[in-house]
Amino acid sequence: MSVKISAADVKKLRETTGAGMMDCKNALVEAEGNFDKAIEILRKKGQKIAAKRADRESTEGVAITKISDDNTYGVAIVLACETDFVSKNDSFKELAQEFVNIAFNYNTKEEFLAADFGGVTVAEKLIEQTGVIGEKIDITAFEKIEAPYVGAYTHVGKIAAIVGLTAVVDNAAELTKDLAMQAASMGATSLSYKDFDPAYVASETEARIAAIKKDNEELVRLGKTLKNVPQFVSRLQLTDEAIAKAEEEAKEQLKAEGKPEQIWDKILPGKMERFISDNTTLDQEQCLLDQKFIKDEKKTVAEYVSSYGDVEVKNFVRVTLG
C-alpha cells in the first residue's frame, strides 16, 4: 500500500535540504513517508554525485567575508562550484552566507568542515548540496586573521581580502578598506620583501633575467627597443654595497655625458630611484607594502599607511576563485 505524500511534507523536506520539489517527493515516496529516512536518501544521492564529480574543477563560486562587530577579527572563505550560472543563484549565495557565519567561529578549515550545520557537519552539507545542485561544490579557501583593527573588501563576490592593523587609528575603516582593495586588485602574496626566502629571490632573479634576455632576442630581430635587463629583482638584494656601486656607476655615466659635477646632486636622486624601481620588480608584484598605491601611484602602500600616523599593517589575507 502506497503512502500518501502531502504537499506540506514535500515543502518541509525542501526547506530542510534545499533539494528540488520532485527530488523531495521521490525521496519521501522511497522512504514511505519517513522524514529522516528521506533526508538520508537525498544525502546518499549527494554522495553518489559527489563521487562522480570529484575530479571536476570548481573554478566558479562566491568569495565572502565576515568581520566581528568590534573589528578585531575576520574570516574569508570561497564556496566554489563548477559554473557561473550556479554561482549567481540567490540560493547559492545564501548558502555561502550560512557557511561564512559558521566559519566565523572557527580558526582552521579543518575545524570549520567538522562543525555542525543543522545536524550534519559542514563537510556533509557540502556533499548533500552537491546532490541538490548537481555539480561539485567545495570550500576551496578559508582564511582568518586577528588584529587590533580588522577591515575587509570584496570585489564582485570573486575576490576578497582582509587586512589587520597594529593599532586603532582615526579613519581605520577607510584605511583597511583601501588596503584590502589594494590586496584584492593587485594580487599581493606577501606583506613585505623582508618576508621572502633568499633562495626564492635567487631563483626568481635567474628566471626573470633569462626571460627578459629571451624577449630581447626577438626585439633585436624586429628592430625594436630592448627591455632593460636588471641586476636584481628585490630590495632583499640591494645591500649597501650594491647601492653604493650603482651610485658610482650613475656618477660615471653623468661624467661621460659631460654633466657638470655641481648639478649631480639634483640628478642622482632620480637616477637612484629609477635603479631601485628597475631592480625591485618582484617586490612590486608580490609585496603589499612595496606596491604602488592604486589610488595615488606617486606613493607606495607603505607610504600611504604612514600618513595615518603610528600604525602598521599587521597581517592580511586574500582569497579568490580558481
Automatic annotation (TrEMBL):
Pfam families: EF_TS. The keyword Protein biosynthesis applies. Residues 75-215, 230-322 form the Translation elongation factor EFTs/EF1B dimerisation domain. Keywords: Coiled coil, Cytoplasm, Elongation factor, Protein biosynthesis. Transmembrane segments: none annotated. One of its GO terms (molecular function) is translation elongation factor activity. GO terms for cellular component: cytoplasm. Residues 202-256 form a coiled coil. Gene3D superfamilies: 1.10.286.20, DNA helicase RuvA subunit, C-terminal domain, Elongation factor Ts, dimerisation domain. The keyword DNA damage does not apply. It is found in: Cytoplasm. Residues 83-86 are annotated as: Involved in Mg(2+) ion dislocation from EF-Tu. It comes from the Bacteria. PROSITE patterns: EF_TS_1. InterPro entries: EF-Ts_dimer_sf, Transl_elong_EFTs/EF1B, Transl_elong_EFTs/EF1B_dimer, Transl_elong_Ts_CS, UBA-like_sf. Associates with the EF-Tu.GDP complex and induces the exchange of GDP to GTP. It remains bound to the aminoacyl-tRNA.EF-Tu.GTP complex up to the GTP hydrolysis stage on the ribosome. Belongs to the EF-Ts family. NCBIfam families: tsf. This is Elongation factor Ts. The lineage of its organism: Bacteria, Pseudomonadati, Bacteroidota, Flavobacteriia, Flavobacteriales.
